[in-house]
Amino acid sequence: MYQRPKGTADILPAQSGQWQKIEATARQVFSRYQYQEIRTPIFENYEVFARSAGDTSDIVTKEMYTFEDKGKRMMALRPEGTAGVVRAYVENKLYGPEFTKPYKVYYMGPMFRYERPQSGRQRQFHQIGVEAFGSESPALDAETIAMAEDLLTQLGARNVKVVINTLGDPESREAYHAALIAYLTPFKDELSEDSKIRLEKNPLRILDSKDKHDQEIVANAPQILDFLSEAASAHFEAVKTYLTDLHIPFEVDATMVRGLDYYNHTIFEVMSDDPAFGGGFTTILAGGRYNGLVEELGGPATPGVGFGMGVERLLLLMQDTVVAPVLPAYIVTIDDSAIPTALQLATAIRRSGYGVDLDYMGKKAKGQFKAANKANAQLVLTLGESELETKTAQVKNMASGEQVGVSFDRLMSDFETVYHELMGGEQ
Ligand code: ATP
Ligand code: MG
User: Fold this and answer.
1) pTM to 2 decimals?
2) Hey, whose CA ends up nearest to atom 10 of ligand 1?
3) DSSP per residue over 349-368, as a string?
C-alpha cells in the first residue's frame, strides 16, 4: 500500500470545511484592509529564494526542496510566500505609477520545507500571508499587526500574544553587528558548528539558534535596542504608540530575530501557549518589514511589510466549531419506477440553486429516510406509486413533521417558493 510522503497530510472532507472557513475569514478580513489576492507559482528559480532568505538561513541551507528540471535549471519548491510575491512584484512592474500605493496583496497555499515532522511542523504546510509595498510609514507596520490580531480574533484563536522587536535600519545593524561579533568571538570555540559559520557570515543569525548552549551564550549578548539610530528608534517608538492607541497588547522581546535575512525595522510574532502546543509558546504568525528585499530581487528600492501565518498551527488552536451543513431536500423513492422522476426533480431543484440528494444504493424507503436524517435534510420529498400517478410529491418538513402534496410542475419550476412556504420562518 502506498503511503503519503513523510511530513505531508491528507485534508479529508471532515476537515476541509474548517479550512474553507479559515480561508473565507482571511479573505474577508484582508479585503476590509484593501488587500487583493495574488497567486504565484509553487516553484521558482532557486535563486529567488536563496537571494531573499539569505544563504545562511536554515531555510536555504537545510530545508529547501530543490531539483534540477529537465532543462538543467535549478528550481525550488517555495519554502515561504514572500520571495515569490516580491519576484512577481518586480517582474510585473507593480511598482509603476498606475498602481495605488501601498500595493497590498495576500496569498494562501502550500509551502515546502524539509524538516523533522512533529505536531505543527510538516514538510508540506500551508501559509496565509500578506505583503504591502511602497510605504515606509510605521502606521502601516501597526496596521499590519492590527490586521494579524483581527484575523486571529475572527478565527477564534485563543491564548495568543503579540511580541514585537526591531532590527533597525542598515546603520543600526552595522553598529550592532560589530558589538555582537566583539561579544561572541571569545565564545567562538563553544559555539555550535552552524553558529561558527554564522559568526563570520551573519552573526545576527546566532540569536535565532536552536542549539541549547548557543542560547545560553546569546542570553547575555548586547541588544539591538541599544544600537538603534535615531531614525530607527523613532520608527519603533511610533509603532509602539500606534499599537497602544489601538489597544493591542504587545510585548517587546529584544532578543527576537527572524529566520529570514530580509527583515529590518519592525518584526513581530503572534504566539500561543495553548495546551494544544504542549507547553511553552509556539509561533503561529510571523512577519515584519523588509525594506531592502525588492531591490535585492532587482526592483527599485521599495519598502515592504507583511506576515505569514501557519494554517496547521492555527488549526491546533481552533475549537471544532464547524457545524454540520444542512441539505435543503432529500428525495425518497418507494421503488425503482420512481427513479427517473426523482432524477429529473433533483436536477431541476439543483439548477434552481438548492442542494438535494437521493439514493443510488438500492436502499429501502426506511434506509433512505435514515440517509435523509444523516444528511440533515430539511425537506423530504416522497415518490411512491400514487405520487407518480397524480404527478404530486409528498413533501415533509422534517423539523415540524408538516406534510403537503406539491405538484411535480411546481417543484421543477419554482422550488424556491415551495421551500420558503414549507420552511416558514425557520431557515
Ligand atoms: P519555526 O521557528 O517554528 O521553524 P519559522 O521562523 O521557520 O518557524 P516562518 O518562516 O516565520 O517560521 O513561517 C511563518 C509561520 O509559518 C510560522 O510561524 C509557522 O506558523 C508556520 N510554519 C513554518 N514552518 C512550518 C512547518 N514546517 N510546518 C508547519 N507550519 C510551519
Ligand atoms: Mg523554521
Assistant:
1) 0.90
2) 259
3) HHHTT--EEE--S---HHHH
